[in-house]
Write a structure and sequence with these properties.
9 helices; three-stranded mixed beta sheet; alpha/beta; 2 domains
Length: 295
């Protein structure tokens, strides 16, 4: 994020987001030498110890690796609350991408249609719940989200500038241990600069719509930042948990020690998955096995 001037703001809250979250105009940190390679090595060594036999080709979803152990092996079940969260998070990211230029009812309807058409034959998918809901229930939820997102617009500035690259749910893949293991994930939002130099310039945003879960939220955003760095070969200067219901943002700046710790932790989760019998492996959102490569 760079340029001759910041995006315009219309509320004090937007100005605070621009300064305190996006850090507009502030000097970006230098990328520590060899940190990306070091993180990849740490992740690989924790995931596949050198004494183990080479694992079979496996694709793991980051969301499944992060899911609470309490979920066990039961398929994920969607309801109105989970659909509200999915639609709100994706609509917010799309609103950032379009710079607040699209009317909210049309934007939310388009996002709902995308959700409705994704894996409609999977009874555990979000589309299955949405398509089975009554027209009245769908309308009620869309109208609620229009009101919520209108409030969020007063907090988040419109990034209508050529100096910001906005990526909505980019599909990321990172190889582990230079072998057949791949971890995939889709960050809610990645904001980046078109500049390519020796400074960290991207910002990773994970959105939350339910009750705060500090420990799980920190793990999720840190692991998402790690995956983004390894997949894009660009370290983020900052990662953020954005609570859409109240506009609160939890910010962490680039710290090699933190990323190294999360690489060790995530590698251990991968190792645990590979060691578990296939019937005991947890399922992720949408009911997909943790080892599947689906979204």
């Amino acid at each position: 994020m760079t340029g001759s001037g910041p995006p315009p703001t219309t509320t004090p809250a937007q100005a605070r987001i621009l300064e305190e979250v996006l850090a507009w105009g502030q000097t970006r940190p230098m990328v520590p030498p060899d940190l990306l390679d070091s993180l990849a090595t740490t992740l690989g060594q924790a995931a596949v110890p050198a004494t183990d036999d080479p694992p079979p080709p496996t694709a793991l979803q980051l969301a499944s690796l992060l899911r609470d152990e309490a979920g066990g092996s039961q398929p994920w079940q969607h309801d109105r609350a989970t659909l509200r969260g999915i639609l709100l998070s994706r609509s917010f990211a799309r609103d950032v991408e379009t710079g607040h230029t699209q009317d909210l009812p049309s934007l939310i309807a388009a996002v709902a249609q995308e959700v409705a058409s994704a894996r409609p034959g999977d009874p555990a998918s979000a589309s299955s719940w949405w398509n089975a809901a009554s027209v009245a229930a769908q309308t009620d939820l869309r109208e609620e989200l229009v009101a919520v997102l209108a409030d969020v617009r007063t907090l988040w500035p419109a990034l209508r500038t050529p100096h910001v690259e906005v990526q909505v749910r980019p599909s990321l893949r990172a190889q582990v241990a230079a072998g057949p293991i791949v971890v995939t994930g889709r960050p809610d939002l990645v904001l980046d600069s078109p500049l390519r130099d020796d400074r960290a310039r991207s910002l990773v945003v994970v959105t939350r719509t339910g009750m705060p879960r500090p420990r799980e939220d920190r793990r999720k955003v840190r692991a998402t930042a790690l995956l983004t760095a390894l997949a894009t070969r660009r370290l983020p200067f900052r990662w953020v948990v954005l609570h859409l219901t109240d506009g609160r943002a939890e910010v962490e700046d680039l710290d090699p020690g933190t990323l190294t710790e999360v690489a060790t932790w995530l590698g251990a989760r991968i190792a645990a998955h590979l060691a578990a019998p296939s019937g005991d492996r947890p399922t992720g959102a949408g009911g997909a096995r943790a080892g599947s490569s689906g979204p």
